[in-house]
Amino acid sequence: MLNSGFFDKIVGALEPRNRGGIEAFIKRMEKERVLLETIFNTVREGIIVLDGKGKVKYVNQAAVELLGLPDDVEGGTIKRYMKEVDWNSLVGENGSWKRTSRREIEILYPERRVLLIYVVPLDPERGDAAVILSDVTETKNRSMETIESEKLKAISLLAAGVAHEIGNPLNSLNIHLQLLERALTQDREEAMELLEIAKEEVARLDQVTAQFLQAVRSTKPTMMECDIKPLVVETLKLMKTEIEERDIDLKCIWPEHMPTVNGDPTQLKQAFLNLIKNALQATPNGGEIKIESSYDNENVSLSFKDSGLGIPKEDIGKLLTPYFTTKKQGTGLGLMVVERIVREHGGQIMIDSEEGQGANFTLLFPRASKRIRLLQPPPEKTPH
User: Fold this and answer.
1) Is residue 134 within a helix (H) or strand (E), and if so which, with residue range?
2) Which residues lie closer than 8 Å to 326 by C-beta, 6 or more apart?
3) Coil, helix or strand for 364?
4) Which terminus of the chain has a lower count of CB atoms within 10 Å, N or C?
5) pLDDT tens profile 120-179
6) Backbone angles phi, psi at 118, to 5 degrees
7) Is 0.70 topped by the overall pTM?
8) Mean pLDDT over each residue of the chain, to the nearest integer
9) Which residues have CB under 8 Å from 2's CB, separation 6+?
């Protein structure tokens, strides 16, 4: 932050004939600076301004109190003070901040808080970004009191949806079995066609039931140290036939040495399978699917990118909602399952898409050497 001494030095260096008018102008600038700083220090949200290298240029009083920052924070790197955020994933190849990000983290110092963090790119030429911090601890604590009723509502919603989804293939199956019974005595070729349709309906029914069970079961993951690469390879083998038949150009990019993560191999493969299926359904014949992994000191990143039509901006926020789907025959449960698995592994899911340019789903998992910090329930209220 600029101080009054800085302005005094400028005024002292000016020629005498110009000093009066310029001194008055600089004094006005100083008053405006003081006013803006007063406003920034009055708001409840923490504000931190970063340069393109992630160094702190400005911090208001709320941010100092929320994070317990020292007096000499300006000029230091943000990674030093907020290790819970994967800053590398927010910086592009050219070193500039590449996108707006919204994260929720827990901090334990100077006291336990849950913070909602927005990282917003500012001036693209200078590469600055603003970090806005909101304390949502009380909101989180209040929400814990209603979580059980919300679970019941969610299960009721899922049950109603699954009943509807099951009804359609069952009716179709019943009709085609009746037609098959007649065709067996008349036309064998027609009978085989009807049998194939019935088999497809049974497969669709099985998929709906399986995804419903995955969505409502809260199975605690059996955590162990595991390598992501062989899990993805095993999952791809299940989809090999469809990938080859549709002439999909599959590209997998891996670093030479991959750090391990703590996870449940079965659940991780289920999440990968759902994302690969989504990519295949979105990609036209002859299109491209790219699976790429990378890592830093904190996390292992795994992205699934397709060359489909992309997702409208207004739909991106709805993708994790039960039964919302952009596909003609989708159940709307696949991504919900992915989000639950990733969350229970202490990870994050990010979605990037532009219409006409495909979609990219990125999963971030803490490295095995990093302790997963789970949010604790709010402390019990002491009766007065």
Assistant:
1) strand 129-135
2) 311, 315
3) strand
4) C
5) 888 777 778 889 898 988 877 766 555 555 555 666 566 656 655 666 666 667 676 777
6) -115, 130
7) no
8) 76
9) 33
**Region of residue 358 (phi > 0: left; psi between -120 and 50: alpha; otherwise: beta):** left
Phi and psi angles of residue 224, each rounded to the nearest 5 degrees, phi first:
-155, 160
pLDDT reported for residue 341: 87
Cα–Cα distance, 35 to 98 (Å, whole number): 31
Q: Do the bridges between strand 56-59 and strand 46-50 make them parallel or antiparallel, or are there none, so unpaired?
A: antiparallel
Most confident of 53-57, 247-251, 267-271: 247-251
Residue 11's identity, in one-letter code, is V
d(CA 81, CA 54): 11
What is the model's pLDDT at position 373? 46
Structure tokens at 322: 């039960």
* DSSP states along 142-195: HHHHTHHHHHHHHHHHHHHHHHHHHHHHHHHHHHHHHHHHHHTTT-HHHHHHHH
Token pair belonging to 164: 């509807």
Give CA–CA dist 63/86, Å, rounded: 19
Q: Do 281 and 242 contact (CB within 8 A), yes or no?
A: no
Does residue 294 contact residue 255 with C-beta atoms inside 8 Å?
Answer: yes
Q: Given the structure tokens 């809260």, which residue do they identify?
A: 218
- Coil, helix or strand at residue 261: strand
